């Protein structure tokens, strides 16, 4: 028996970034200057989680056929309050409506060379929590989230470890593209984040933003649907 | 039928192309193309784009044609309508157009086979998927700074019903800059065909009405500069006009 899943949340476009925490950058190390990358990244390394990926707290997520595990990219989403274009660092907070906890699920992929559509865009692979008003968050750099898999601590992500903190990220993204009200900018997922397998129950928890829970469906997939 | 969306006289309207070539409002009023402000012909859902999907173009960029399709996504900020102005960064060395056949999905599609793929297509339009190669980085390449800039993907003018495009895999594409043809190819040369792409994408994820697939561009790229008029055209689908403006230009804020 499956518990009923909450309807997918309404959101604008969800954008994410990789290699935005110092730990991941350090672990990739010299590889970033070798082929295929050949140079350290300059602009934020962005991706899109399209609407079919949106899922709510309580979701049961089916993995694509054949997938044995999935990376749990636990992160924080910045919810935009008004259109943001060419935002200055000191003005960034004025554009932010709130923050959410989020889990960006990806089939494991170690290379960031090509866009990871197959790995990152399967149905239900972006679990979005409920927004907490920005006025209640004095400094997003103080946020910290924990991931548990079957109740056991699997990871912790501190926004203090971001390469680009929230204001700098908003400045550098909005330099070339406008974020609209309702768009969500995920502030970073770790390279080789912890993985979960079919049957596992996952929680992403913030003391300030609340938590989301979801499980990885044991019935093999989507193809059969 | 060819359907477009325009802003005219204080409201947004769906328009159709009349037999005499005029643009018709729902009440029958006839407009010249230049009288309306054109919006993208569909309110886009997820926007997919293909890189290196014509063998000749892959060679031109010194890549061998891929064994798996190179798919990337865009946000709605990238789209602008027919006859609009696209900002060209004044300090960029190389910005080029890409004339592409855009496929608009008409119904929810999940695990659709190639044989059934055309049943899920609402229609077709023309897109110009500009790229500014100065901003290329080898991370999730082509990266969003190259391909998801505001207004850098003109699309339209018309959404042409699928029934009116008997063979989308046999259409001539061409681009002209200031009246001089610079790019010509045929959709016959796609590496991954439209039915193949619908099967491939719908095996990964659920496609929805309004999702758009930009199917790649043939060879014939050239740098374009502020002041250029770039026309991307696909036989039977449409003729999409775009103007390039210097990103510092005050005219951008008045158009």
Explain this structure.
The complex is a heterodimer of chains A (225) and B (255). Chain A has 225 residues and is mostly beta strands. Chain A has a single domain (14-224), classed as Fumarylacetoacetase-like, C-terminal domain (Fumarylacetoacetate hydrolase, domain 2). In chain A, 9% of the residues lie in helices and 32% in strands. Chain A has 3 helices and 14 strands. In chain A, strand 9 and strand 10 form a beta hairpin. Chain A starts with 13 loop residues before the first strand and ends in a 9-residue tail after the last strand. The mean pLDDT of chain A is 93. Chain B has 255 residues and is mostly beta strands. Chain B has 2 domains: 1-39, FAH (SH3 type barrels, Roll); 42-253, Fumarylacetoacetase-like, C-terminal domain (Fumarylacetoacetate hydrolase, domain 2, Alpha-Beta Complex), CATH 3.90.850.10. Chain B has 3 helices and 19 strands. Chain B has helices spanning 55-60, 144-147, 194-204; strands at residues 2-8, 11-17, 23-24, 30-31, 37-39, 47-51, 70-74, 79-80, 84-88, 95-96, 99-105, 121-128, 131-132, 153-161, 172-177, 180-186, 212-214, 229-234, 238-246. In chain B, the strands form 3 sheets. In chain B, strands 1, 2, 3, 4, 5, 6, 7, 8, 11, 12, 14 and 17 form a 12-stranded mixed sheet that branches. A 5-stranded mixed sheet of chain B has the order 9-19-18-15-16, with no helix packed on it. The radius of gyration of chain B is 17 Å and the shape is globular. The two termini of chain B are 29 Å apart. The model of chain B has no long low-confidence stretch (mean pLDDT 94). At the A-B interface, strand 2 of A face strand 7 of B.
